[in-house]
Automatic annotation (TrEMBL):
This is histidine--tRNA ligase. One of its GO terms (cellular component) is cytoplasm. The keyword Aminoacyl-tRNA synthetase applies. GO terms for molecular function: ATP binding; histidine-tRNA ligase activity. Signal peptide: none annotated. InterPro entries: aa-tRNA-synth_II, aa-tRNA-synth_II/BPL/LPL, Anticodon-bd, Anticodon-bd_dom_sf, His-tRNA-ligase, HisRS-like_core, HisRS/HisZ. SUPFAM superfamilies: Class II aaRS ABD-related, Class II aaRS and biotin synthetases. Gene3D superfamilies: Anticodon-binding domain, Bira Bifunctional Protein, Domain 2. It comes from Dendrobium chrysotoxum (Orchid).
Length: 515
């Protein structure tokens, strides 16, 4: 068998899986034979492509123009300029809005005396899929898969170059728990921490749901009393107020995981079904009752118990819940305490009891809450609750804790819907316009002096004055400072106040503040 026919058998398999490069370096020489080998139609035999030029007596030698160099213009293709599906770019106008929202997150956190922390976006995969050091049984794995956050299929996970399994974090609370455990006894409880971080989930996109988003988290670690939840809800209400959102626009549904626990105990449902039942009933209001009932039956819940669960979780009155569970029930006493605290804080009109709120995450243990738009057009704006048993799943002693996550995507949708997004134009204090090139050094001294006083300055040269005035209007400049020969010879510069159109000459040392 000839070399060419041997290649014939090997390369087609590679050819089907590898595409030729979209473009090649300008100086890369390729003979006619090589070009026919790599850019031939799939149906053309390789041996023929090689031999047709290599064996002919009259084959002309490669030229230095059309055959030796591959034309960049003909092979060039524009890179896809869109970000990966489900992600976003932030051009300047969007960054101004993002910074405005983040500044409000930070200001509310400051008002409640929280400290800011941060964590790597890249975390160990084990942090998000382990189950308390136990063997992951089939049932435990089913719970993980059913839970939309910890579903393995929704993790952006991979093996790094060192062979370690890592993940782009889908949420922040496990990272927070890791840091608290790492800090150990070097910190005193309670901790009041907040962060604003990016999260990644490979999931189906809908309005207000992307594959990456930024999330404001506030957590209180080491406080078991319901006052911690009351503080967190107060933070959410304060933020809504700062953004111009009222209690007629948004409400906060409140319940407790202990309500569902009590109902399951009433119907003698095994404890190991609790997490799975939580995930199912968290869909109440999002899917039909028939779907909920069928999923509960599939999980092994009896028809009688299903009826009891749905009846209790349909309650919207705390007094009726008390009639069912009794005034001494732990869930009832916690909820009554929280509603009393809400009256003292002054946000009782924002909250209402809704037993169907259980939150889908497996680690919640007590009071849970979520904010919603009263028109029902959007998914939950934010949500959180108590997670007193999370730390033991990482091998540490349990610490009482609660917190919430508040994403940027849904709140922006709501603000758009309500016409509450601010008009944040670019703003610059001064434009320094150089009229004569020989004064460039002097103009730079002026620019440097102004910037050192804290003023923002845009230096412009080589433009027409008409363009400069339009540019000043676009960026909302306060002053236009003209550096020209005639004024400079007298130790002056010309200043134009753009809002009033007043124009005058001033000395350089008088430029540090507007006239």
């Amino acid at each position: 068998m000839s070399i060419a026919s041997s290649i014939e058998h090997i390369i087609p398999r590679l050819y089907l899986s590898l595409k030729p490069p979209a473009s090649l370096p300008r100086a890369l020489p390729l003979s006619r034979a090589h070009r026919r080998l790599f850019f031939r139609p799939l149906s053309a035999p390789i041996a023929a492509s090689v031999d047709s030029t290599a064996t002919k007596d009259n084959a002309r030698p490669p030229s230095t123009d059309d055959d030796t160099l591959v034309s960049v213009a003909s092979e060039r293709s524009l890179v896809d300029v869109n970000p990966p599906r489900g992600t976003r770019d932030f051009p300047p106008e969007d960054m101004r809005l993002r910074n405005w929202l983040f500044n409000n997150f930070r200001e509310v956190s400051r008002l409640l005396s929280f400290e800011e922390v941060d964590f790597p976006v890249l975390e160990s995969e084990a942090l998000f899929i382990r189950k308390g050091g136990e063997e992951i049984t089939q049932q435990a794995w089913a719970e993980i898969v059913m839970n939309e956050l910890f579903s393995y299929c929704q993790l952006y996970n991979f093996e790094d170059k060192g062979g370690r399994r890592v993940v782009l974090r889908p949420e922040i609370t496990p990272s927070l728990a890791r840091l608290v455990i790492k800090q150990g006894k070097s910190v005193s409880l309670p901790l009041k921490w907040f962060t604003i971080g990016q999260c990644w989930r490979y999931e189906r996109m809908t309005r207000g749901r992307r594959r990456e988003h930024y999330q404001w988290n506030m957590d209180i670690i080491g406080l078991s009393k319901v006052r911690a939840e009351a503080e967190l809800i107060h933070a959410i209400v304060l933020l809504f107020g700062r953004l111009g959102i009222t209690s007629s626009d948004v409400g906060i549904r409140i319940s407790s995981r202990k309500v569902l626990q009590a109902v399951l105990q009433l119907h003698s449902i095994p404890e190991h079904l609790f997490a799975e039942v939580c995930v199912i009933v968290d869909k109440m209001g999002k899917v039909s009752r028939d779907v909920i009932e069928n999923e509960l039956m599939t999980a092994g819940v009896s028809i009688e118990a299903i009826k009891g669960i749905i009846e209790v979780l349909s309650l919207k009155s705390l007094s009726k819940l008390e009639e069912v569970l009794g005034s001494e029930d732990e869930a009832v006493t916690d909820l009554k305490s929280l509603f009393l605290l809400a009256e003292h804080y002054g946000y009782i009109q924002w909250i209402n009891f809704d037993a169907s709120v259980v939150r889908g995450l497996a680690y919640y243990t007590g009071i849970v809450f979520e904010a919603f738009d009263r028109e029902g057009k959007l998914r939950a704006i934010c949500g959180g609750g108590r997670y007193d048993r999370l730390f033991s799943t990482f091998g540490s002693d349990d610490i009482p804790a609660c917190g919430f996550g508040f994403g940027d995507a849904v709140i922006f949708e709501l603000l758009k819907e309500k016409g509450l997004l601010p008009d944040l134009n670019r703003q610059v204090d001064d434009i320094v316009f150089l009229l004569d090139e020989e004064l460039e050094g002097s103009a730079l001294k002026i620019v440097s002096s102004l910037r050192q006083t804290g003023r923002s300055v845009d230096l412009i040269q080589d433009k027409r004055l008409k363009w400069v005035f339009k540019h000043a209007e676009r960026i909302n400049a306060e002053r236009l400072i003209l550096v020209g020969n005639s004024e400079w010879q007298r130790g002056m510069v010309r200043v134009k106040i753009l809002a009033t159109r007043d124009e005058f000459e001033v000395k350089m040392d008088e430029l540090t503040a507007p006239s």
